[in-house]
Give the backbone structure.
Amino acid sequence: MKTGDLKQIILRLFGNREFYGYQVHKVLLSEDVKVEMSRLYRVLNEMRREELLEGRWEKSRIGPRRRVYRLGRRGREALNKILLEAIRTVHGFYGAYLMSLLPEVNVFDDIVRLFTDGSKVYENIVYIMTKYSRMHEVLISNIQSRLPQAKIFLVKPGQLELDLKLDNLFFLDGFYNDIPLKNDYADCMVVIGLPKLEYLERALKEWHRVLKSNGKLTILTPSILLERYEEPLTIGDFIEKHEHETIEKGEHVDKTVLEEQVNKYFNSIEEKSIVHITILRVSDPVQIER
């Protein structure tokens, strides 16, 4: 086994635990990884010099003192990188699986039905996203298929380029709190994700401005990001929590705070969950003098 591969296995074994060298050897054997003790100690010491591991000496009741190893700063960073790469791989396969399902059991079809609310009269739909994923293409294509007569305005950061060619699809450079459309314009608005808490009220004010008085706002966000104080117990929630905390540096908007902010601008809010996504359906804008 290459030394780099052995180091990765050792990093995965440690987590928040501490081990003596011989304990590491025993755990490796239980994982069917065979390595000579002399080589293992050379690798452990090399990892300590690289700050992947930290070591401290501990007195023994019998015999010489022993070195105890635990993850070092660079080790925690490397372990997080390994975990994130694994999560991305699983997420990719899971997303491909969801998108391959037949329409009668397709999650994205269910979500789009909530967007459109069975309506056939929407003229202007605003779809806000901040980063690319294949999911967006599927959702937008599904919306266009259900409402072929509607204009879809895709609001995205200027640096984000998309090769998505659909009838009546228009690209606009903007952000959550900066939508280049006139007042009372949109029949339906779809927001993917949430802005940081400090920008949330400004974003809601902007969404309120662009929506018609009878317009509908739909917000989609990973459920785990609304449950700041709960530890995930399912593998799906664990993946969502770790991936988003790593990418978005732990940005959360507590559900209670979110609802309080939404209620400043809209009178009606309904919540629904599909797989690991929370969907907030918001309507009946509060009358505000502009």
Q: What stands out?
A: The chain is about 40% helix and 25% strand. The first helix runs from residue 3 to 14. Residues 3-73 form a domain with the Arc Repressor Mutant, subunit A fold (CATH 1.10.10.10).
